Amino acid sequence: MQSTPSHSPENPENSSGSHSVQSADASSMQPVNLTDVPLVVVNVGLSGFAAELSAQQVQVTSVDWQPPAHGDAELARLLALLDS
Q1: Are 7 and 32 in contact (CB under 8 A)?
Q2: Residue ranges for the chain with pLDDT beneath 70
Q3: How far apart are CA 56 and CA 5, in angstroms?
Q4: Residue 60 lies in domain
Q5: In a shared domain, residues 48 and 72
Q6: The model's pTM
């Protein structure tokens, strides 16, 4: 099921002043108020970002990720050759 934001240039916010999401399924066109559900975040590699969210009581799952070859594109290309 695909979700689309209910806000648009013509309707930037719903009547309660918060953003919501509506289902694209015509049989269930009820908006979901995103401020009524707990926020859960997957943090990828930025420990400071995760710490700030945790300090605000947001549930955070951190993934220790770094770009291949520490971001060196040429080294990443050479390492990829070893896999082939």
Answers
A1: no
A2: 1-27
A3: 25
A4: 38-79
A5: yes
A6: 0.45
